[in-house]
């Protein structure tokens, strides 16, 4: 049995897992997915290379675990922002702004690049679930505004959000300016796809 540095085996396991995920996050932030190797993780976490596989099936699994670290807080913040109103128009704006803010806190670029390249099944499922959960609420909101055009409106909203995330990451704009520009762009989309009360067509 390996030597443990905690009161119980369970606590030891949790400590080592935290060290592995911390190390993986540092590598992904600083060097990108291509640098995430067993040797690199072992060196940063202070865990023997062969011991890593007692905790994860593959190094790729650590990509998924890093994503999982951020998703609960991210989703809770978005939901809280949306819960402030029952109006789908206001909720759409809140969804976009909250995601922009969370992306800025997390550091959007490195987190989104976690899914680059071919992933092992476990990691691919985790990353896929995170993206699906993020955008599922958007599809539902647009469905309340214009059911017939919800998919295309959702795609365009995603594009606006990602473009503004990238602009903030590149420091082309500050977060305050990005919030206002994103708010305005989403409101323009709502005007474009809003269904009027007469013929069911976009009001614009």
UniProtKB/TrEMBL annotation:
Keywords: DNA-binding. Residues 37-56 bind DNA. One of its GO terms (molecular function) is transcription cis-regulatory region binding. Residues 14-74 form the HTH tetR-type domain. InterPro entries: Homeodomain-like_sf, HTH-type_TetR-like_transc_reg, HTH_TetR. The keyword DNA-binding applies. PROSITE patterns: HTH_TETR_2. It comes from the Bacteria. Pfam families: TetR_N. This is Transcriptional regulator, TetR family. It comes from Propionibacterium acidifaciens F0233.
């Amino acid at each position: 049995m390996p030597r443990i540095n905690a009161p119980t085996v369970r606590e030891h396991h949790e400590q080592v897992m935290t060290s592995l995920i911390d190390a993986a996050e540092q590598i992904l932030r600083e060097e990108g997915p291509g640098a995430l190797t067993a040797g690199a993780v072992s060196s940063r976490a202070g865990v023997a290379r062969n011991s890593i596989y007692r905790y994860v099936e593959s190094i790729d699994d650590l990509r998924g675990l890093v994503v999982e670290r951020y998703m609960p807080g991210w989703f809770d913040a978005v939901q809280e922002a949306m819960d402030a109103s029952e109006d789908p128009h206001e909720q759409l704006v809140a969804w976009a702004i909250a995601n922009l803010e969370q992306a800025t806190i997390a550091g959007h670029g490195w987190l989104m690049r976690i899914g680059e390249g071919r992933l092992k099944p476990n990691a691919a499922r985790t990353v896929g679930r995170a993206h699906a959960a993020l955008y599922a609420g958007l599809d539902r909101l647009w469905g309340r505004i214009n059911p017939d055009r919800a998919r295309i409106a959702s795609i365009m909203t995603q594009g606006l959000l990602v473009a503004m995330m990238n602009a903030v990451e590149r420091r082309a704009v500050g977060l305050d300016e990005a919030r206002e520009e994103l708010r305005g762009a989403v409101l323009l989309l709502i005007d474009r796809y809003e269904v009027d009360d007469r013929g069911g067509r976009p009001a614009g």
